Recover the amino acids of this structure.
C-alpha cells in the first residue's frame, strides 16, 4: 500500500471484538469494531472510528462502515483476517473509502497547551494567583 505502513496493534485494556490500526509513524490510530447493521439490526457490520493516540474515539461518528449483513459468529473470523494481513484487507474494493481516508496526509496531532498561572488584578509582581476552584479541590 503506497508509502505508509498500516499496522495492527493491541492496546492495553482493549477487550472485546475489534482492533486498532496505526497509520505510518505519525501515531494516527483507528478502531475497527463490529456495530449493529442499521439496515438489518439482527446483523452486524464493521465500522472504523478515528481515535486519540490512547485509543479513545475522537467523535462518536464512524468514518467508514463495511462488511454489511454479517452474522455474529462471522465477526471473529473477519477480524482475524484483518489481523493476519491488514494491507490485503484494505486492498479489497469494499475498503476503498477507508483506505483513501487512512492514506490522506494529516497534520500531526497538536500538543496540549501548557497551563500558565493567572494573575489577579492587584496581585504583587512575581506572585502567581490561585484559582478558587482549584483551591477547593
Amino acid at each position: 500500500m503506497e508509502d505508509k505502513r498500516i499496522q495492527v496493534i493491541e492496546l492495553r485494556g482493549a477487550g472485546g471484538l475489534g482492533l486498532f490500526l496505526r497509520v505510518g509513524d505519525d501515531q494516527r490510530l483507528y478502531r475497527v469494531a463490529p456495530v449493529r447493521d442499521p439496515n438489518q439490526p439482527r446483523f452486524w457490520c464493521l465500522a472504523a472510528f478515528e481515535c486519540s493516540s490512547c485509543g479513545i474515539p475522537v467523535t462518536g461518528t464512524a468514518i467508514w462502515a463495511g462488511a454489511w449483513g454479517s452474522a455474529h459468529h462471522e465477526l471473529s473470523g473477519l477480524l482475524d483476517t484483518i489481523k493476519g494481513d491488514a494491507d490485503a484487507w484494505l486492498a479489497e474494493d469494499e475498503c476503498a473509502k477507508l483506505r483513501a481516508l487512512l492514506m490522506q496526509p494529516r497534520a500531526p496531532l497538536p500538543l496540549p497547551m501548557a497551563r500558565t498561572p493567572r494573575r489577579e488584578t492587584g496581585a504583587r509582581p512575581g506572585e502567581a494567583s490561585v484559582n478558587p476552584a482549584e483551591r477547593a479541590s
Q: What stands out?
A: The chain has a mean pLDDT of 80. The first helix runs from residue 75 to 84. The radius of gyration is 21 Å.
